[in-house]
Specification:
Rossmann fold; 16 helices; 12-stranded mixed beta sheet; 16 strands; globular; 19% strand; alpha/beta
């Protein structure tokens, strides 16, 4: 009888040993991402926690890059950040705007670009999900041909589903305050997504998304308002004369987006001749072209898209899409963008990021060949509806940006007739004026508007350190 006991104890030990061997696999089983410790071009291990992965939303496989907060990831806010275009990769946000890496521009002489850690990263105080969206941007792809068709409203719904699924896979972040952040064209998506999140919470969708606020950088909000803001802005910047501005103001009756008279058309033609060679992204810099190693096939594909799609993306505001280079273009700031196209197409880079082989034939920083339909041109009502939500909102604008002029943003933020908590005043960094700000407060809703002095489109790309300082104050409820 005594001899029968050891095998019984052995049966108990074996499962425990087996369980112990499986423990290292449990974190991977909890969600679908991969931890990336090293990246080609960066020397040594990354000094922050990076996870990449895919989230399936219907026929679309959305690729994301998640950087944990470098302070306290368990309690710091979770920021879901979308880039514009539409069609720009989340890597654009990481390398050029708010992320912890940037390219070494000074020493680049060809080959694999090298990477530098940037301490002015919003990940110092927030967990950030960067996403390749809409489908076809970056490394996101569809499993069927029809899955590549997208629009403003469809992308909004898909991103809502993405967030729900991502947080189900990452339950430890479900209690963190959630903020939605966006740049440029993605500003049209942001308030729609925030409203959808709040409605989903009311409808009992799980997990509950603890939406706390949103951040807008040079946001596309109202096509007509933005078009009308360009002419006064050009006048303020001395790009058109007083007499020409006054003539257009009279003949167009302040409506430059929808000219109805021959006199208005004539005045607008004269104005556009004055500003056509101005860099709309940064009015005091030379005109930049989009330098990108696009293949002839990609260029032909872009040219052959349906006329309706081309009108929808370009006619409402052609400045959202950067033009292709011409022979006499300056070799200027946009050279930096080329490095991301080069870096992202290295096989070693895609291996390190865990890109599924064969899913994206060629990576582009901003894919201009999307099958995308613009079906929303004005989201002011969404913003207005959210003024009863008690959310915290930050709207930032570069004062040298003529794509989304600051005077247009000031007009729509003032149109809600909210109570002014602090009126127009300078905000400072190291004793110097960094821009100007105004804050509105109404029933717990707080909207902070700020210009960034000397910045263009997008402000983080021109004044990364100042924008870091602005976000740090705002996210901690300090005044600018």
């Amino acid at each position: 009888m005594e001899g029968a006991k050891p095998p019984c104890r052995l049966l108990l030990v074996v499962p425990l040993v087996f369980l112990f061997l499986l423990l290292p696999l449990f974190p991977r089983l909890a969600h679908s991402g991969w931890t990336v410790k090293e990246l080609p071009g960066y020397s040594g291990e990354l000094p922050f926690t990076l996870e990449t992965g895919y989230v399936s939303v219907g026929e679309v496989e959305f690729f994301y890059y998640f950087v944990e907060s470098e302070s306290n990831p368990w309690s710091d806010p979770l920021l879901f950040y979308m880039n514009g275009g539409p069609g720009c990769s989340g890597l654009n946000g990481i390398f050029y705007q708010i992320g912890p890496l940037r390219f070494n521009i000074t020493d680049y002489d060809g080959g694999l670009p090298t990477l530098i850690y940037d301490s002015n990263s919003w990940t110092k105080m927030a967990n950030i999900i960067f996403i390749d969206a809409p489908v076809g941007a970056g490394f996101s792809y569809a499993t069927t041909a029809s899955g590549y068709g997208s629009s403003d409203t469809l992308t909004t719904a898909q991103l809502h589903t993405f967030l729900l699924k991502w947080l189900r896979d990452h339950p430890r972040f479900q209690r963190n305050p959630l903020f939605i952040g966006s740049d440029a064209y993605a500003g049209i998506i942001t308030p729609m997504l925030v409203q959808m999140i709040m409605q989903g919470n009311k409808d009992g969708l799980t997990p509950y998304l603890r939406i706390t606020g949103y951040v807008l950088s040079c946001p596309h909000t109202d096509t007509t308002l933005e078009t009308n803001a360009k002419i006064p802005y050009a006048h303020r910047m001395a790009l058109i004369s007083d007499s020409l501005y006054k003539a257009a103001k009279t003949s167009c009756n302040d409506d430059y987006a929808n000219p109805t008279t021959a006199a208005c058309e004539e005045d607008l033609t004269a104005i556009y001749q004055c500003i056509e060679l101005i860099n709309k992204q940064m009015v005091i810099e030379p005109v930049c072209a989009l330098l990108s190693p696009e293949t002839n096939k990609a260029l032909q594909l872009a040219a052959s898209r349906q006329e309706q799609r081309r009108r929808s993306l370009r006619q409402f505001n052609q400045d959202f899409l950067l033009s292709l280079p011409e022979p006499n273009d300056y070799w200027c700031k946009n050279f930096e963008y080329l490095l991301l196209d080069v870096w992202g197409n290295y096989p070693s880079v895609q291996d390190a990021l865990h890109i599924r082989p064969g899913t994206v034939p060629e990576f582009y920083r901003c894919n201009i060949t999307l099958d995308y339909t613009v079906d929303v041109n004005n989201v002011l009502e969404y913003h207005k509806n959210l003024t009863d939500s008690g959310l915290q909102v930050l709207v930032a604008s570069g004062d040298h940006d003529m794509i989304i002029p600051h005077n247009g943003i000031e007009k729509w933020t003032a149109s809600f007739n909210l109570s002014i908590d602090s009126d127009w005043r300078p905000w400072y960094i190291d004793g110097q004026v960094a821009g100007y700000t105004r804050k509105y407060v109404e029933h717990g809703y707080r909207l902070t508007y700020a210009t960034v002095k000397g910045a263009g489109y997008s402000p983080m790309e021109y004044k990364r350190d100042w924008c870091y300082n602005m976000f740090e104050r705002w996210i901690h409820y300090y005044p600018l």
